[in-house]
Amino acid sequence: MASTTTTTTTAPIPITIITGFLGSGKTTLILNLIPQLRAANPAYKLALLKNEFGDVAVDSQLASSGAIAGVQELLGGCICCNLVGQLGAALAELRATVAPDRIVVETSGSAFPATLAMEVNRLARDTGGAYALDGVVSVVDVENWKGYEDTSYTARIQARYTDLIVFNKWEAAGERRFDECLDRVGDLEIDLAWVKSERGWVGMEVVFGIDGGLARELGHEGEHGHEHDGHEHGGVDGGHKHEHDHQTEVEVLSIELKGPGVVDATKLLAFLKSTPKDEVYRIKAVLSVSSASASDIRNSDEDVSSPAPSRLHPQSRYILNWAFGRWTFTPIGAGGAEHESSHEATLRMTMILARYESTKWKKKLEAGGLLELDGEVKGELTVTKIN
């Protein structure tokens, strides 16, 4: 795609890429950085460019509720593959409409960070220095990495081609599991900085301003012979090509429940509790439940119900985020902005599954009894495989 070279007279906007496998805690890390930035400078403006693998914008809506200055969303693909051409326009819109002090690019769980880093560097050159790649941060889920690292080429690449590894969810896994995970990262034969989060919290001075070596190493395309067509990823590790299409590591179902009324909260919770994490990696949804049922909506790690939205409305709207057997419901307040991907739908859900699991789960969902409306009318459920 042709680009127009421009010259900027202002300081470049630093860009931090945050990657990590599905459910590792990338959005939580970002949300925990915002109050730190605001405490240091109340006028600080952080913008987010978020890539969702499915077709429902969930994490960006969570981010919008967390006082991020501006959010751009790239849906339905991988930002390092079929959506890479949209990166420049998305960054330009954030720059024009928000004028942020920093942009965080949060990738889908399947993205290759090296490819994205090279594209950011190319855009920085083509815009005459409007942007500067600060560094690449990879979030590793200690509790679950031992399972998916064995099968996911992407997870290993994300851990290898980065400037900083954040070990997340180690508290529940214990020190022994953390040591095993650290040993596995050591097997990648790289010398990387790493830090353990505190339930998703890491100091902003650790994440930002790292002046990453990967950013410098990948400063020029072709310097390392990198090729990327969705099937080959090479050069960055010495010119080797990996015959691998990383988007085939997961399968994605798009789910919509239509009809008058609200979602049956009891059946929804039973569905979340019974879903095996070795078959399903992520569930993201936006849904409505009745105000009466809202008191029964519970997060997996809580003994009490989730905070309820405004009681002024007969139904309550929630964002559901499920990963590896744990989930949270976040209320969307009355009058809160909602992304067009889920607007006015009783339930819009994306399920991201392991390979070869989508056909079985599509049949299970279509058989009924898992996701239904509350009451005699069960609603019209549509399940579509999109990847």
From TrEMBL:
Coiled coil: none annotated. Pfam families: cobW. GO terms for cellular component: cytoplasm. It comes from the Eukaryota. InterPro entries: CobW/HypB/UreG_nucleotide-bd (IPR003495), P-loop_NTPase (IPR027417), Zinc-reg_GTPase_activator (IPR051316). Residues 14-186 form the CobW/HypB/UreG nucleotide-binding domain. Residues 218-243 are annotated as: Disordered. This is CobW/HypB/UreG, nucleotide-binding domain-containing protein.
